[in-house]
Amino acid sequence: LDLLPTPHLLVDLATVERNAQRLADYAARHRLAVRPHAKTHKSLALAQLQLKSGARGLTVAKVGEAKVMASVCDDLLIAYPALDHARTTAIADLARTASVRVAIDSQMAADALAAAVGAAHSTLGILIDLDLGMRRTGVQTPEASLHLARHVAQTPHLRLDGLFCYPGHVQRPPNQQGEQLTAASQLLDETLALWRRAGLPAPIVSGGSTPTAYQSHLMPSLTEIRPGTYLFNDANTLYGGFCTIDDCAAVIVATVMSNVIPGKVIIDAGSKTLTSDLNIHRRDSGYGYLPDYTDATITRLSEEHGELDVSRCQQPPRLGERVRVIPNHICPCVNLQSSLWLRDHEGQAHLLPVDARGLLS
Amino acid sequence: LDLLPTPHLLVDLATVERNAQRLADYAARHRLAVRPHAKTHKSLALAQLQLKSGARGLTVAKVGEAKVMASVCDDLLIAYPALDHARTTAIADLARTASVRVAIDSQMAADALAAAVGAAHSTLGILIDLDLGMRRTGVQTPEASLHLARHVAQTPHLRLDGLFCYPGHVQRPPNQQGEQLTAASQLLDETLALWRRAGLPAPIVSGGSTPTAYQSHLMPSLTEIRPGTYLFNDANTLYGGFCTIDDCAAVIVATVMSNVIPGKVIIDAGSKTLTSDLNIHRRDSGYGYLPDYTDATITRLSEEHGELDVSRCQQPPRLGERVRVIPNHICPCVNLQSSLWLRDHEGQAHLLPVDARGLLS
Question: Which one of A341, A360, B34, B165 is most buried, counting C-beta atoms within 10 A?
Answer without folding.
Answer: B165
